[in-house]
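#struct-queue
[09:14] JT: dropping the first one here, sequence first, then the structure tokens:
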Amino acid sequence: MIRLNAPGSDGVASLSTVWAVMEAARAGAADATAAARGFLPAAGALLSGGIHATGFAVGYLTTFPAVMLARVVPGNNAVVYGLADGGRAGIDLARSTLQGASLSGSSAAVPKLAAVEA
């Protein structure tokens, strides 16, 4: 709280002190306004960068092990045939589920899914 002295011999000094305090408050308010205007774009950029980094990490951490596993497993064996059959079964189940969920019931409403060839 600012206490003002009663006007007297130092009345001019009190007035100049009040004036200096008011000018400092105005300058502080202007600085706070400028900082607040710069906060939202900076926060948006930080959030966008975080989302991008998370998406990159999820994509990398799922794709890299899958590719490494695909390169490690030899091509002509029961594991590969089982994976291919499971993929085909998943595609068939997805296709039948989508056809059952479509209102028209026609296969034209269901997109063609890539088939896995053994």
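[09:21] JT: and here's the second one, same format:
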Amino acid sequence: MTPAPAREPADRATVITLGVAAVFAAGVAFAVAFITSFTHRELPPWGLLGGIAVVLALVAAFRLVFDSRVIAAAGVVGVVAAIALLMLPGAGGSLVVLDDAFGWVWALVPTLGGATIAAWPRRRMES
């Protein structure tokens, strides 16, 4: 058996570019999930379904546009961070994401769906 060819080390500029893109993706996903967290309870169940669709479409776009899964994973981290932040009680004790069915669906579906999208293998291009 022939050994697998060694992977070429990524040059420094590629790693820095990937890091900057991951931070940008996490920030954009955080902003989108933050905004949709406020609207997920509007017009039940359509607000919830629309928010989930928007968040998952954003993560899917990151996965389709960029070659690396790191960008999509960073987007999922941004989504989870925004939802987790808004599940905590505010200064006055108010909550945005409540402990009910809508809150649990909002917390779990974007997280699990986003993780699935980020982990999904890329389709090989036929030549």
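[09:30] RK: nice, looked through the second one.
[09:31] RK: Residues 18-88+96-119 form one domain.
[09:31] JT: good to know. DSSP finds four helices and no strands in the chain.
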